[in-house]
């Protein structure tokens, strides 16, 4: 069977990243912005291919297509959805004249759900006979909204790369009663939405094939991604990653290094990004991974992120030798009350120790020649202007090479959740004042590289 997988268009005036926030999604203002490779789609494509299906894919975000343009390319100019003179010679992908196409899978996220369902409904209206299924790591928390608001027949809950093959078999065979025997799906049954919960939260990550990047327009991505682990064992109240991915699980260091080597040799990218939420959560495993990357002769610079507490000076040195170019630290805030109230601090850690450790990591990264990007979150529930100013002063004191500032957003499945999205504890600052503080935080970055040691000192250190 032939299956088409789609990363649908961004909403007008935005750029969608359905991989962001653990698969819950991020919308960046402005069209034609930073495009993130859809790793979830590539994994699902690989698992379907492994099950014996032919897979095609369309990344409308990378192509910068609108919903109308994407539908026109799928349905063909003759559909009249959106005439494209230059595309008249292209055969439509979704049409009665393309009988080999068995189903269409659409990756969705919470942040982009409105645009996602607009695309799904447009496709279903033009081709009501075509089975459509939804997938994405956030569907486990948004399945009801996804099915109630769309013409899709089924939503794949949890990690779609493990359950998509069985769903496709049921859809393509037309035996929808088989869905009642599957775990981890939600589907329509006589007008009612039925949910069958997942039997298990976690699949065996080592059993997954390499993502099928070849079905996607890899030339349009500035880098490719890989995952050495998923999830996190900590419980930050605002974190969408844990809600989507569950507890920490990891792959074998040797398999991860082999995939990095394969990416280097197959696609020739000059940059790799680990999608791990907590890259260095298991210190011993991280050391082994660094050794495996060096043994595999992975020469492509890579970057990763983890909690600040997961890193130390020796580990950063080992990572640098293994090809790490950038480390990302989730500082979020330096306010004592927020750090405690949002479960940000580890047992036994104090807020002052947390701040001192971040400052030390930034300084160590400079000495090692590592780019260190510090992430800050603004608008957290209970955050006061004094707390914002304290975080700003801290950034200006440590001067990291890069600062990323993101506005807090409540996600379903987190401890705070959608119902806790109202910031309490102080009168909300005006949008102009929030923007001013956020821009000043970004300006606190000092991208200048550290001074190089003399040749003799570098030789002695090595």
Mean pLDDT across the residues is 88
Question: How far apart lie the N and C ends?
Answer: 56 Å
- Net shape: globular
Structural class: alpha/beta
Structure description:
This protein is α/β, with parallel strands linked by helices and 462 residues long. The protein has two domains: 195 residues, 3-Layer(aba) Sandwich (Rossmann fold), CATH 3.40.50.2300; 239 residues, TIM Barrel (Alpha-Beta Barrel), CATH 3.20.20. The chain is 35% helix and 18% strand. The strands form four sheets. A seven-stranded mixed sheet has the order 4-1-5-6-7-8-9, sandwiched between helices. It has a six-stranded parallel sheet with strand order 10-13-14-15-16-17. The protein has a two-stranded antiparallel sheet with strand order 2-3. The longest helix is centred in the C-terminal third of the chain and has 18 residues. The radius of gyration is 23 Å and the shape is globular. About 2% of the residues have low confidence.
Keywords:
462 residues; TIM Barrel; 17 strands; alpha/beta; globular; Rossmann fold; 7-stranded mixed β-sheet; 6-stranded parallel β-sheet
What's this, in brief?
By secondary structure, the chain is an alpha/beta fold.
Task: Please describe the topology of this protein.
Blueprint: E1 2-7, E2 14-17, E3 26-29, H1 39-50, E4 54-59, H2 67-75, E5 101-107, H3 113-126, E6 132-135, H4 139-148, E7 154-156, H5 160-173, E8 185-189, E9 192-196, E10 224-226, E11 229-230, H6 240-245, E12 249-250, H7 253-267, E13 272-274, H8 283-295, E14 302-306, H9 313-321, E15 324-332, H10 336-341, H11 351-368, E16 371-378, H12 385-398, E17 402-407, H13 431-443, H14 455-461
Parallel strand pairs: 1-4, 1-5, 5-6, 6-7, 10-13, 13-14, 14-15, 15-16, 16-17
Antiparallel strand pairs: 2-3, 7-8, 8-9, 11-12
């Amino acid at each position: 069977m032939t299956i088409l997988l789609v990363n649908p268009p961004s909403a007008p005036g935005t750029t969608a990243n359905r991989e962001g926030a653990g698969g819950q999604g991020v919308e960046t203002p402005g069209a034609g912005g930073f495009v993130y490779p859809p790793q979830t789609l590539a994994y699902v494509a690989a698992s379907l291919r492994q099950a014996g299906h032919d897979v095609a894919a369309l990344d409308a975000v990378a192509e910068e297509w609108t919903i109308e343009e994407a539908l026109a390319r799928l349905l063909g100019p003759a559909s009249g959805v959106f005439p494209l003179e230059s595309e008249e010679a292209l055969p439509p992908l979704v049409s009665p004249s393309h009988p080999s196409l068995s189903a269409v899978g659409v990756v969705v996220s919470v942040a982009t759900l409105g645009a996602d369902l607009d695309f799904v409904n447009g496709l279903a209206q033009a081709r009501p006979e075509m089975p459509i299924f939804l997938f994405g790591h956030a569907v486990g928390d948004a399945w009801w909204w996804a099915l109630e608001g769309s013409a899709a027949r089924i939503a794949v809950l949890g990690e779609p790369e493990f359950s998509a093959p069985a769903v496709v078999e049921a859809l393509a065979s037309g035996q929808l009663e088989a869905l009642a025997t599957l775990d981890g799906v939600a589907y329509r049954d006589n007008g009612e939405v039925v949910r069958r919960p997942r039997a298990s939260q976690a699949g065996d990550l080592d059993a997954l094939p390499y993502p099928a990047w070849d079905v996607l327009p890899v030339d349009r991505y500035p880098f490719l991604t890989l995952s050495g682990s998923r999830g996190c064992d900590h419980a930050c109240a605002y974190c969408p990653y844990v809600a989507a991915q569950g507890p920490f699980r990891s792959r074998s260091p040797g398999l991860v290094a082999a995939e990095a080597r394969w990416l280097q040799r197959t696609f020739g990218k000059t940059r790799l990004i680990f999608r791990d939420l907590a890259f260095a959560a298991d210190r011993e495993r991280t050391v082994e991974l660094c050794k495996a990357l060096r043994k595999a002769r992975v020469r492509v610079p890579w970057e990763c992120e983890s909690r600040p507490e997961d890193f130390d000076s020796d580990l950063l040195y080992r990572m640098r030798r293994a090809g790490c170019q950038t480390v990302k630290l989730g500082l979020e805030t330096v306010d004592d009350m927020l750090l405690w109230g949002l479960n940000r601090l580890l047992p036994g850690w104090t807020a002052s120790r947390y701040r001192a450790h971040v400052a030390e990591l930034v300084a160590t990264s400079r000495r090692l020649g590592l780019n260190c990007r510090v992430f800050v979150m603004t608008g957290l529930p209970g955050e006061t202007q004094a707390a914002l100013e304290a975080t700003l002063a801290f950034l200006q004191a440590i001067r990291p090479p890069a600062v990323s500032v993101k506005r807090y957003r409540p996600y379903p499945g987190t401890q705070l959740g959608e119902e806790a999205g109202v910031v309490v504890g102080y009168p909300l600052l005006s949008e102009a004042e929030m923007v001013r503080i956020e821009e000043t935080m970004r300006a606190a970055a000092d991208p200048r590289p550290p001074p190089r040691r003399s040749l003799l000192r570098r030789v002695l250190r090595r």
